[in-house]
Amino acid sequence: MKLVSVDKLEPGLVVSENIYTIDDRLVLTKGTVLDEKDIARIKAHSLYNIFVEDQKKDVPVKKETPSSENLSYAEKLKSTEEFIRFKQHIEENAEELEEAFRMIANDTMPLDIEKLTEPVYHLFVEAGGTAGIFDMIHNLRDNSDEVYMHSLNVSLISNTLASWMRLSTDEIELATAGGLLHDIGKMLVPQELVNKKTPLTEYEQRVMREHVVRGYELVKDKDIDVHIKNCILMHHEMRDGSGYPLALKGEQIDEIASIVVVSNIYDELTSKRLYRESVCPFTVIEQFEKQGLDKFSPNVVMTFLSNIVNTFIANRVLLSNGQAGEIIFINPEHLSKPVVKCGTEYVDLSAQREISIISVI
To answer: Which of 27, 32, 196, 354 could make an S-S bridge to 15, C-beta 3.0–4.6 Å?
Structure first.
């Protein structure tokens, strides 16, 4: 292990200790094999030195199209073998999860948490851990699956968020399982509502909300951890009492469930749905900034926000003024308003508040 100046970093170096910002936000995890995007992420946080292993490793070769130099980071990622394989596997796992949920709901299969969550950990490794999981998820937004892909995404996000919070291994496993099972009650509401291609009416929304209680009733007598049961029951509860089904407030909401609450909302809004397009992640981040401390566990939402924005460094975005550019710096005081390099111009969105990010491209 050796200490290396950030200016001397090069692809292939292996991170030997988790890298944190001066305000204790995770940048990259131990074992990451640095590529150009990782190095850009480190430099964007104004870090000076990091610890790396003595021996370099080969950076995974990513197959790109002949004109890849003109493509955005997202476009390049989608052409890699890693992304194609991850997409195939998560879609296969979503189909298997649907069958498992159906059999559990029909009481023809035991609820085996370890067996159900095993594919999630395989996906996590395939994605490259916390450093890569959001790269994969953010580029799967063309899929409009309402339940099973969403359940896998929420499980992966909850796992990552719990890791960012430095929770114990047991707590991370509970968050992973709670995220995976949170919507199991949707097996027990009318499927025509789950699959409806237009927005739900007020009456239909009330019926759909029953999935929370029905899911809890399905598992309440099962031999699984109470925190997982609470994730199913409480994943729509809000800290200010505006959630459902119990209008719980503050510390009444299970600590593991509070992780799933944030993960669920983020994935729900940033995913494409049958009746709407996906919402720009930075729009969702801005909403979290405005409502976070009132509606969500402060530790959960602040940890999520301070880390999720870092996953967008080096990504290309479209601005509301028509310009396109690359995110090069995150403003700690205005997380939804980064600095974007558009050609030779640097646009500080925290200073030019009339301009916003409308999409990641």
So the answer is: 32
